[in-house]
Amino acid sequence: DTVLLFEHAPVYTLGRGADENHL
Fold first, then answer.
1. For the chain, how long is the longest CA-to-CA vector?
2. Burial of 1 (C-beta count, 10 Å sphere; 0-12/13-18/19+)
3. List of residues 6+ apart from 3 with CB closer than 8 A
4. How far apart are the C-alpha atoms of 21 and 1, rounded to whole Å?
5. Does the pLDDT at position 18 exceed 60?
6. Tell me, what's the pLDDT at 16?
7. How many C-beta atoms lie closer than 10 Å to residue 9's C-beta?
8. Angle, CA 19 vertex, CA 17 and CA 20 arms, to 5°
9. Out of the domains of life, which is the source (predicted)?
10. Does 9 score more than 60 pLDDT?
11. Residues 6+ positions from 10 with CB-CB distance below 8 Å
């Protein structure tokens, strides 16, 4: 599951809009 989270990291960040700067 960790790999999936890492792969979808950018998508999750964009969805939340909180880690936009982290991108």
1. 25
2. exposed
3. none
4. 25
5. no
6. 62
7. 13
8. 65
9. Eukaryota
10. yes
11. 23
